[in-house]
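Section 3.1: Structural characterization of target chains.
Under the original work plan, the team committed to producing a structural model for every single-chain target entering the pipeline before any wet-lab resources were allocated. The record below documents one such target. The sequence was received from the expression subgroup and is listed exactly as submitted; it comprises 307 residues.
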Amino acid sequence: MPVDPQARALAEQIGAGLDITKTELAEIRRTLEETSRLGPRPEVAMLKDLEVPGPAGPIPVRVYRPSHHADLPVLVYLHGGGWTLCSIETHDPTCRELANAAGCVVVSVGYRLAPEHRFPAAPEDCYAALGWVARHASSLGGDPARIALGGDSAGGNLTAAVSLMARDRGGPRLVHQLLVYPVMDHAFDTDSYRENAQGWLLTREMMQGFWGHYLGREADGRHPYASPLRAPDLAGLPPAHVITAEYDPLRDEGEAYARRLAAVGVPVVQRRYDGMIHGFFGFTELIDRAREAVADAARELRRGFDS
């Protein structure tokens, strides 16, 4: 189907302002922070900003609770932004929506950004934050036996990477992983990259720029914690929900990862949102199908928490 009119309008309105190949990172970061504070934000029962220990110093996190009940399931959320942009603040509405819709505590992680901090700084921060949450879930009103991990775009990449790290390092145990149009491979050779090279909000050239900022050296792109699709074995990973968008350069690598998970017996739900573009999940106020996607994500989270 053609690009959804609501998604097209969004891309035409803000697309050029996010192009890291044409605008300085500092300017884009500042604009994103300023505009993120303008829109409506769903109410939650409790919000608290904390710092947790990390491999290179304190890591900021924001905790959302949809109610004051104890022993709620927990979602650790990793924001997108090409490993270089965005923050806890830019993804605050999404975390509020997921907390309320899934009935879970959400812990949003402010991991270190590139190019100031290159791979593997971001996944190591996220793994450290996950470990802290697993050890302190009860003090957050959460259930340490029901922890999920999720993220969008680069955050989806980090979700897959940290899920691999948790498996490889003996924990923490995860009950679910939410991968929203994730970056899965340091390669640009899929049909979706060719079809959507000029893209809507995200282009091939932008992705090459993001990877260039993120990796310290080209060889790092072959590491499974940078390119989870290159992991030799995906067995033993938590059940996954993979969301992709039809007009997204990253579409095919996310769907390839879902197929590989299924091939080794990992329960996986994969859904492509036709007519949608990269980034749509975060714009529920503007795009009807974004609200549908968030509701789908919340449903699969609840299913994962209850399994």
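The radius of gyration is 18 Å.
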